[in-house]
Design a protein that fits this description.
The complex is a heterodimer of chains A (283) and B (244). Chain A has eleven helices and no strands. The longest helix of chain A is centred in the first third of the chain and has 40 residues. Chain A is mainly alpha-helical. With 244 residues, chain B is α/β, with parallel strands linked by helices. The longest helix of chain B has 16 residues. Chain B is globular and about 55 Å long. The chains are: A mainly alpha (283), B alpha/beta (244). Chains A and B meet through helix 8 and helix 9 of A and helix 2, strand 6, helix 3 and helix 5 of B.
């Protein structure tokens, strides 16, 4: 008889796959620990230059974390809208969502960031000038568009969100499609509307399905956030470049930058694996 | 109060090239139990699903308790009055049995947590599995899952219950426990439309049996007459195949 008091018993009983970790703390935590120890050891044994590097990078670490976290929140929202749009029965909504996904996936993130930061302001200028010419009543808006200066942080977040939102749309779409149609039918037949059925029945199940790919996207985003260093955001990579150009210590600088990224990505993927185990339910 | 609770007129539906329904007229009275039989692909499930608009008609009209199904805003109104039980149960696997029965009460009927829980527990008791309230669907047998599904539909206090081959996905030894629940429901006077080949149930509970073939109603009769004196050749042929 199944253990009714503890539903998680059913999950525990499931046969483990060979690569699946056995306990709460799988062995990959040790790799993270080893990387952290390496950093500590370097800083302890050779304070110059390693302590100097870490101190110099400190602001950049914070920027990288913040830009990744803020972008990720937006990406989750944009991805959900895009994913639902791709599944829409209305051809206009479906078409728009598909166009967004197809276009954005076809352009490298670096190019998107460069366009947003360097080319987009010119577009705004042109639109602003057009508005000023068009009618005196639009002068205020037009002038504002001309005057507005792109904020590097905001542009970086926008760029990452637009790009990763497209990938996330596809993940949401696949996740929602993986839930059997009968679930939506059962919810609707009980009188729930589309959004109630999505929120209470389909999405809670889809989220468990998409958690692994979403976690991968988070780690990828963390790494790709280094690209924002080209658009005047002082993230960890940009700070690394600055330190290197003043000290000429390439090996030390980039080793430390690489180790610090590793700490973040290894930690992030451990957290994802942990959440995955916590949210699993008996199928 | 009028006595006709479901009125279907000239219902037609096609899926691509297949004509699932070809002009079906059917009226169900309040408190009546109607069993629909027929070979697979005869349109019986489609007809049932049209009654709560899981499928939309291409032509014809359906009125449920006086509400016409042609306006979108009416659909949710009708669905709240019509419970449906599916062949594949379609329980929500991420929720316990109790939460399965409570969810729509809270979301659609806007009942409080306490009230929904009370009604849900009563419902689970009624279908004979109060001890499984905290179990997840994956921990239940097929028969238990289907009984939870019935309790989930009943918790909305529907005026009509639809059953779409409720025992077809069950192991033989579990069919009876589900049919017993349905039988009890029929005795209480629930209006029921049941697509099923369970002739025992039809004999015991049905007021009327409808035989469908190729998207049309071929024969409408009582259980006694169906078994003793089927009128149409097709009905006879079908019965000879399912009654061994």
């Amino acid at each position: 008889m199944p253990d009714v008091e503890r539903p998680e018993a059913a999950i525990e009983k499931r046969t483990r796959l060979a690569h699946e970790p056995r306990g709460e703390f799988d062995s990959w935590w040790f790799l993270l620990l080893a990387v952290i120890l390496t950093i500590a050891l370097l800083m302890f044994l050779k304070p110059d230059p390693f302590q100097r590097i870490v101190l110099f990078l400190r602001d950049g670490i914070w920027v990288t974390v913040r830009i990744t976290a803020v972008s990720f929140v937006f990406i989750l929202v944009v991805g959900l809208i895009g994913g639902l749009g791709r599944l829409s029965k209305s051809w206009i909504i479906h078409g728009l969502a598909s166009l967004y996904v197809e276009l954005i996936r076809g352009i490298p993130l670096l190019v998107q960031l460069l366009f947003l930061y360097f080319a987009f302001p010119q577009v705004l200028d042109a639109v602003g000038a057009g508005l000023v010419k068009l009618s005196p009543s639009l002068q205020g808006v037009g002038q504002w568009l001309i005057d507005v200066k792109p904020d590097p942080f905001a542009m970086a977040v926008a760029g990452l969100t637009i790009c990763y939102g497209a990938y996330m749309s596809e993940i949401y779409r696949a996740g929602i499609q993986s839930i059997s149609k009968g679930q939506m039918e059962a919810a609707r037949s009980l009188g729930m509307n589309y959004f109630q059925a999505m929120r209470f029945v389909v999405l809670p199940q889809a989220i468990r399905v998409i958690l692994p790919p979403v976690g991968n996207e988070f780690v990828a985003l963390l790494k790709d956030s280094s690209l924002v260093s080209v658009v005047a955001v002082s993230d960890m990579t940009r700070r690394g470049r600055e330190f290197m150009s003043s000290s000429f210590m390439s090996l030390e600088t980039w080793s430390m930058v690489a180790l610090l990224y590793l700490v973040m990505t290894l930690f992030a993927s451990r957290v994802v694996a942990y959440i995955e185990r916590k949210t699993a339910f008996a199928k | 109060m009028q006595n006709e609770i479901i009125v279907i007129k000239g219902a037609a539906k096609r899926f691509g090239r297949v004509e699932a329904l070809r002009g079906v007229d059917l009226t169900v009275q309040r408190g009546e139990v109607v069993v629909i039989i027929g070979p697979s692909g005869s349109g019986k499930s489609t007809l049932l699903r049209c009654i709560n608009h899981l499928e939309s008609l291409d032509a014809g009209t359906i009125q449920v308790d006086g509400i016409s199904l042609d306006h979108v805003e009416n659909i949710n109104k009708v669905r709240a009055e019509v419970g449906i039980v599916f062949q594949q149960f379609n329980l929500f696997p991420h929720l316990t049995a109790l939460d399965n029965v409570m969810l729509a009460q809270k979301v659609v009927r806007k009942r409080s947590r306490e009230e929904s829980e009370k009604i849900a527990l009563e419902g689970l008791k009624k279908v004979g599995i109060p001890e499984k309230a905290k179990a997840y669907p994956a921990q239940l047998s097929g028969g238990q899952q289907q009984r939870v599904a019935i309790a989930r539909a009943l918790a909305m206090q529907p005026k009509i219950m639809l059953f779409d081959e409720p025992t077809s996905a069950l192991d033989p030894e579990m069919i009876k426990e589900v049919l017993d629940v349905m039988l009890a429901l029929a005795k209480e006077g629930m209006t029921m439309v049941v697509v099923s080949h369970e002739m025992g149930f039809a004999r015991a509970a049905a007021d009327r049996i409808i035989f469908m073939d190729e998207g049309m109603i071929v024969e409408e009769t009582t259980p006694e007459l169906l078994f003793t004196a089927p009128k149409h050749e097709r009905t006879k042929l079908f019965l000879s195949k399912i009654l061994h």
